């Protein structure tokens, strides 16, 4: 059975908010992270007239889309002394959404067929996504806002004499070790949540002699040559990696938390792949026992078991249904305990963005899961930028808290676990449509919605071929027809002779 998703509770009002009539306010804003969320946040803030500084500890934009062959010294990522590698990309990774859906709303992610070095596939590899993000940063002048090789080590509130928060102190550190203290009007947190692995736990693992690795540290299949591999997980990456290593491993045994009995056993296509229920126990002789009491002897257990949110201050250690979670820490953000993390719920947040106590001067971009991430980040950023300029009004702090508490009550009544608070898979577009109403801007095109569901249908029918086989060419044509108003003449396939800038 699939995990329950958190419903997006309808907002208190569906009509567009009434903008203030006073002149727009320009604020000095710190954006933490230069991945997709940070890049689009910086653009929207700049468009709104704010003065923006983007802090990025890496040496280029792209965030999680920056590939490195490097892996951590601890393959499970449990050793706090390890040198952390933030990328989770593997060499063969391709997107699980077509480029037409994936791109920002007004900056189409089109194939650059005039450049033979680029990946023109509809579901491109990770390098093509990074090139797209670099193009976005150059086109909108975001690169000029970024301080590379600069890590934020502290961001805390500065209270006025009256007790109201009106400034944020941000301390950053260069790789050289030089620290700088600055004061900002607002902080936008965009540092992602895909680098802190979860590890499955089961009896006997302390004495099991084999090797364990989390998919965060998977790059290429070669280390698994002629090995018997047990792979735990059912995510898109788990499916990709199982196929990746099947061509080189001796055997691949894929473990599911929930799987129908009739699907257990040998894979119908791959001769060296088997499907199993969850692991019951492992033993010092190298054996792995599954819930149906079947037994194999394995060399490697590969955990494709997801990630814990890596956001909020305070060290903790939790266990949930056999899953080991990292000690949560958000080393730079200090909110005096007002914003917390509890079982992957970051809160209290109004509509997954604003903590009422600090709104609009503290916000989070990119928390929602099971959505189209780039476009959700874009719409969230428009909302944040508008509220910071006083063009868009938020409800009162009391009303925001009331909305949050009602939302949490709805989750509790429906039996939705806290860890699914930011999971919007029940309706991936309702939240974005609501954000667009708040901003007074266009929302998702109908073709984008229909294509999303068409891809899901094809993926279910042909999980190993959905990236290269599709039956929604009419929707692709509609997409490119819409893209004509944004694309320069040189890449516009649809005959619009008017040169329209990005």
TrEMBL record:
Region of interest called Disordered, as start-end residue ranges on this chain: 1-20
Gene3D superfamilies: FAD/NAD(P)-binding domain
Keyword annotations: FAD, Flavoprotein, Monooxygenase, NADP, Oxidoreductase
Pfam family of the protein (one): FMO-like
Membrane-traversing stretches: none
EC annotation from Swiss-Prot or TrEMBL: 1.-.-.-
EC supergroup of this enzyme: oxidoreductase
Extent of the signal sequence: none
Gene Ontology MF terms: flavin adenine dinucleotide binding; N,N-dimethylaniline monooxygenase activity; NADP binding
Annotated PANTHER family: DIMETHYLANILINE MONOOXYGENASE (PTHR23023)
Family listed: Belongs to the FMO family.
Name under which the protein is recorded: Flavin-containing monooxygenase
Native source organism of the sequence: Ficus carica
């Amino acid at each position: 059975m699939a995990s329950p998703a958190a419903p997006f509770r309808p907002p208190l009002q569906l009509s567009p908010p009434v903008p203030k009539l006073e002149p727009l306010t320009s604020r000095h804003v710190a954006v933490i992270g230069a991945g997709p969320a940070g890049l689009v946040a910086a653009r929207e803030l700049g468009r709104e007239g704010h003065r923006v500084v983007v802090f990025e500890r890496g040496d280029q934009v792209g965030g999680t889309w920056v590939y490195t062959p490097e892996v951590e010294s601890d393959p499970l990522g449990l050793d706090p002394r390890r040198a952390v590698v933030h990328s989770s990309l593997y060499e063969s990774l391709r997107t699980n959404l077509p480029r037409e859906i994936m791109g920002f709303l007004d900056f189409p992610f089109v194939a650059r067929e005039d450049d033979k070095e680029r990946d023109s596939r509809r579901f491109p590899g990770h390098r093509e996504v990074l090139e797209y993000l670099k193009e976005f940063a150059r086109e909108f002048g975001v690169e000029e806002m970024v301080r590379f090789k600069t890590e934020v080590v502290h961001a805390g509130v500065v209270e006025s004499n009256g007790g109201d928060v009106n400034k944020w102190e941000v301390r950053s550190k260069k790789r050289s070790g030089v620290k700088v203290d600055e004061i900002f009007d607002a902080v936008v947190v965009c540092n992602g949540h895909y680098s802190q692995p979860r590890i499955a736990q089961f009896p006997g693992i302390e004495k099991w002699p084999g090797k364990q690795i989390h998919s965060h540290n998977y790059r290429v299949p070669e280390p698994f040559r002629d090995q018997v591999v047990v792979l735990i997980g059912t995510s898109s990456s788990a499916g990709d990696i199982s196929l990746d290593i099947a061509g080189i491993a001796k055997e691949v045994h894929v473990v599911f938390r929930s799987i129908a009995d009739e699907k257990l056993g040998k894979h119908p296509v791959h001769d060296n792949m088997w499907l199993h229920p969850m692991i019951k126990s492992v033993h010092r002789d190298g054996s792995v026992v599954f819930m149906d009491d079947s037994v194999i002897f394995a060399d490697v257990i590969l955990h494709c078991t997801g990630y814990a949110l890596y956001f909020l201050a305070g060290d903790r250690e939790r266990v949930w249904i056999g899953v080991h979670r990292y000690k949560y820490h958000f080393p730079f953000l200090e909110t005096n305990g007002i914003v917390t993390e509890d079982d992957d719920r970051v809160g209290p947040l109004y509509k997954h963005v604003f903590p009422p106590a600090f709104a609009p001067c503290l916000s989070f971009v990119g928390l929602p899961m099971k959505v189209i991430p780039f476009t959700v980040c874009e719409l969230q950023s428009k909302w944040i930028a508008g509220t910071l300029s006083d063009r868009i009004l938020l409800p009162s702090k009391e009303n925001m808290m009331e909305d949050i508490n009602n939302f949490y009550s709805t989750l509790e009544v429906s039996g939705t676990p806290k860890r699914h608070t930011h999971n919007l898979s029940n309706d991936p577009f309702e939240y974005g449509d609501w954000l667009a109403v708040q901003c007074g801007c266009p929302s998702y095109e109908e073709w984008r919605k229909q294509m999303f569901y068409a891809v899901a249908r094809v993926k279910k029918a042909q999980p190993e071929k959905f990236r290269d086989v599709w039956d929604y060419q009419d929707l692709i044509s509609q997409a490119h027809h819409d893209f004509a108003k944004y694309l320069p003449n040189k890449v516009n396939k649809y005959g619009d002779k008017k040169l329209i800038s990005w």
